[in-house]
Amino acid sequence: MSEVLVLIDHVDGAVRKPTYELLTIAKRLGEPSAVFIGSSAQGAEVAEKVKQYGAEKVYVVDDAQIKGYLVAPKAEALQQLAEKTSPAAILIPSTSEGKEVAGRLAIKLESGLITDAVDVQGDGTTTQSVFAGNYTVQAKVTKGTPIITVKPNSAAPEESAGAGTVEEFAATISDSAKKAQIVASQPRKATGRPELTEAAIVVAGGRGTGGNFESVEGLADALGGAVGASRAAVDSGWIPHTFQIGQTGKTVSPQLYVATGISGAIQHRAGMQTSKTIVAVNKDEEAPIFELVDFGVVGDLHTVLPALTEEVTKRKG
Amino acid sequence: MNIVVCVKYVPDATADRQFESDKTVDRVGVDGLLSELDEYAVEQALQLKEKAGDDTLVTALCVGPEKAVDAVRKALQMGADEGVHVVDDAIAGSDAAATSLVLAKAIEKAGAETKVDLVVCGMASTDGVMSVIPAMLAERLDLPQVTLASVIETQGDQVRVKRDGDTATEVIGATMPLVLSVTDQSGEARYPSFKGIMAAKKKPLETWSLSDLGVDAGQVGLSVAWTEVQETTARPPRTAGEIVKDEDGSGATALAEFLASKKFI
Ligand SMILES: Cc1cc2nc3c(=O)[nH]c(=O)nc-3n(C[C@H](O)[C@H](O)[C@H](O)COP(=O)(O)OP(=O)(O)OC[C@H]3O[C@@H](n4cnc5c(N)ncnc54)[C@H](O)[C@@H]3O)c2cc1C
Ligand SMILES: Nc1ncnc2c1ncn2[C@@H]1O[C@H](COP(=O)(O)O)[C@@H](O)[C@H]1O
């Protein structure tokens, strides 16, 4: 069976959950080989994790010549690995960095690229959600090695024991790939809440919060969810841009989406329309968000949210 | 400085977007416009010109069908100096890889006399939303890519940008020539003024075909795309659920009841 390369999504060696989803999907297509571009000192530790989700091989590409630069060196490393292994497919996490790596790799390998898949079948057919979630598209790569970027929550990670054989891979990084340098980097502060794109429950606040995100956070914590926001809330400086949901922010597809003080503009819908259950609190009964909801409350969020948080806490006991 | 801004003509996101029978995006039956996210790219190019002085040339470049010339015109009205519209029947249905090939060749042609220092793109097109063209262009042109910038500073040929990454806020540095993409956090785009609209009518606007670029028609278009759309399905509209009015604090209880019925609490 052919190998399927899976680029590991990690922060300083801490493997992120979408990696396990990608490995689960890779098994449908062939034999999963995880690719760790990071410090080779962490290779063994990472291999221990990914082999629990079926990684037969773990290619460790030391990032000494990679990490100080934008995506070009990563694309080079993957190209060389692909040339060595002739994989059946290459799966990459659908982050903004992942998509750029994939874009460069597609040109290098003269291979078709599909971005933002929410499902991949065994024959390589992908499912994507397009036009702000109004259409579902089935597509397939028809040339070269299929390169597919996969969104978080696209599969339930399935445990299965793989050999997890570590293999160091020495990539040759060209000088021209090292021209965009990361001069400074400030890691985001941990919030202690679930990652927005991975969360099962998201509570989002908009302009209607008037900047009162404590009640949004309070409800999120009571429900064990992540906090999100509309662009209006981000533009007002109430919350950093990483929490923005929508066309120019994150796309989320949780089990439950709670929109509070958000009108439901098309650009916002683009990022949350495929959520399983949607509820909203808005004081304007004409707000377009109510066209999407499974349950809506017309009311003032400043009173509804604290009362709801109390009710949730009480019921959870 | 020689700046090329890549602008895409897209179906209006607030209209009912749809697909053609060959499963390509309907670019004719739905009202189109300059992609809102590319307005930010035009804005940043114009700001760089204003800072660098008048010998900077900003060229708006669009690959798209006949009507796509509107996107170039809008960029000219905003203040770009020249426009290039690449149009050719053979391009219809091209995927990102082929589009990036045509754009790259057009950028090379635009820089045939004076080399292009900066290619500025939007963060994503509002129809395809792939966010891969800037990376593909950088790959094809063998240029550094500095993407998703929210703040851009230049000093001579040095470029520094700030960006909000997935896991960190970063400062990126590179030397021109390079490919830059900017986000909608980079600052509101200007509206064309009346003067700008009048001036745009006299600005040079060239139309190039594939043969002008030395691209073989067999390299682009739907039939040679590296990906194939097999099926498009309209998502059934969400049916509006129950809406209650919050009277005397009953709203919170009703919502809690609903969440409990769905086993969220
Ligand atoms: C190119 C482009 C990209 C964009 N990308 C995004 C994106 O990624 N994400 C995004 O969200 N937006 C995006 N937008 C912006 C989008 O068009 C809307 O402007 C934005 O979503 C509005 O945010 P909002 O719903 O919080 O604010 P508003 O539209 O102002 O709505 C506020 C709502 O709060 C309600 N409200 C007020 N007070 C209360 C109260 N006390 N209790 C309860 N309800 C109250 C009001 O009734 C109203 O419905 C984009 C726009 C453009 C042009
Ligand atoms: N057909 C096109 N003509 C000109 N520029 C384009 C075209 N397609 C994409 N671009 C540029 O590439 C950016 C990213 O597009 P995409 O990768 O399609 O999301 C856009 O914001 C534009 O700046």
What features would you highlight for this structure?
heterodimer, A: 317 residues, alpha/beta, nine-stranded mixed beta sheet, five-stranded parallel beta sheet, 8 helices, B: 265 residues, Rossmann fold, seven-stranded parallel beta sheet, three-stranded antiparallel beta sheet, 28% helix, globular, binds flavin-adenine dinucleotide, binds adenosine monophosphate
Descriptive overview:
The complex is a heterodimer of chains A (317) and B (265). Helix content of chain A is 26%, strand content 27%. Chain A has eight helices and 17 strands. Chain A is elongated, with a radius of gyration of 21 Å. Chain A starts with a strand and ends with a helix. The mean pLDDT of chain A is 96. Chain B has 265 residues and is α/β, with parallel strands linked by helices. Chain B has seven helices and 14 strands. Chain B has helices at residues 36-52, 69-78, 96-110, 133-141, 194-200, 210-213, 250-261; strands spanning 2-6, 9-11, 32-34, 57-63, 82-86, 118-122, 145-149, 151-155, 158-164, 168-175, 178-182, 205-208, 227-234, 242-245. In chain B, strand 8 (151-155) and strand 9 (158-164) form a beta hairpin. The termini of chain B are far apart. The model of chain B has no long low-confidence stretch (mean pLDDT 95). The chains are: A alpha/beta (317), B alpha/beta (265). Chains A and B meet through helix 4, strand 7, strand 9, strand 12 and strand 16 of A and helix 3, helix 4, strand 7, strand 10 and strand 13 of B. Strand 17 (295-298) of chain A pairs parallel with strand 14 (242-245) of chain B. The structure holds flavin-adenine dinucleotide and adenosine monophosphate (AMP).
